[in-house]
Write a structure and sequence with these properties.
Layout: H1 21-35, H2 38-52, H3 69-74, H4 76-94, H5 99-116, H6 122-138, H7 145-168
Helix pairs in contact: 1-4, 1-7, 2-4, 2-6, 5-7, 6-7
């Protein structure tokens, strides 16, 4: 069942604690295995997002009316976006020891999604959950509970950074009933 963020909920996020060296290594080691299947994993993540949270498709004119998961998987536009998502994640994971690079990636992604695409920031939180779910299922041998905890912390940091960019650019909440 799809649940949208309640009005005012999560407005003042607490910054997650920085990743430890051990957490960085666990994320990078597990990501190396995930990224070998970059395209398939990216498509699996987006298809799961769109099937479980259909309102997230409203931002994609090319496939927002496609209901069938197999048809979504075949969509060239979805595959292209999946590739961009995976490349952005790859840059973040490769740059975990470079906070300026991480901040730069988050700024580009945050600004584009706030200003150009007008995506509600809650979808980044939803996407984080979907990423964790897919990685845990598809890569259960490498995404152990300890590794999943490190990923959870990383994705919370990403969400915190993205929402900070949204605030910086003056994001105002839009009604989610439009579209």
């Amino acid at each position: 069942m799809e649940r949208m963020q309640a009005e005012g909920e999560g407005d003042h996020l607490e910054r997650p604690s920085p990743l430890t060296d051990k957490e960085r290594v666990m994320i990078q080691d597990s990501w190396a295995k995930v990224y070998q299947n970059c395209e398939d994993v990216g498509v699996a993540i987006l298809v799961r997002l769109f099937v479980n949270f259909p309102s997230s498709k409203q931002y994609f004119s090319q496939f927002k009316n496609i209901e069938d998961p197999e048809e979504l998987e075949r969509s060239a536009q979805l595959r292209k976006h999946a590739h961009r998502v995976m490349n952005a994640l790859n840059t973040l994971v490769e740059s975990l020891d470079n906070s300026d690079k991480v901040a730069s990636v988050l700024k580009v992604v945050g600004k584009a999604h706030a200003l150009r695409h007008k995506v509600e920031p809650v979808y980044f939180k939803i996407l984080s959950g979907v990423i964790l779910e897919v990685l845990g299922e598809e890569f259960s041998e490498v995404v152990t509970p300890e590794v999943a905890a490190a990923w959870t912390k990383l994705l919370a940091t990403v969400y915190f950074g993205i929402t900070a960019i949204y605030e910086e650019v003056g994001w105002t909440k839009l009604s989610t009933s439009t579209g």
